[in-house]
Design a protein that fits this description.
The protein has about 70 residues and is an all-alpha fold. The mean pLDDT is about 80.
């Protein structure tokens, strides 16, 4: 049938970051991904460009962090 969607697993973005970079760098990456667009948009009203930039950055980090073959 399928797996329970509420069952915990290690296939989340933060688990991959933590495994590759460690806890402190994972927290820094998350803080930057959350607060950088907010602060940058406060000074420069360029929300659409930030959205595009952060989306590309997110997928780049995913590509570099998550192994190509997931067990």
């Amino acid at each position: 049938i399928g797996t329970n969607p509420f069952k915990g697993d290690r296939r989340h973005f933060h688990h991959y970051l933590n495994k590759k970079y460690g806890f402190k760098k994972t927290i820094i990456i998350y803080i930057l991904m959350i607060y950088f667009p907010i602060l940058f948009n406060s000074f420069f009203d360029i929300a659409i460009y930030l959205l595009i930039f952060m989306t590309i950055s997110y997928f780049f980090i995913l590509k570099k962090t998550i192994p190509s073959k997931i067990d």
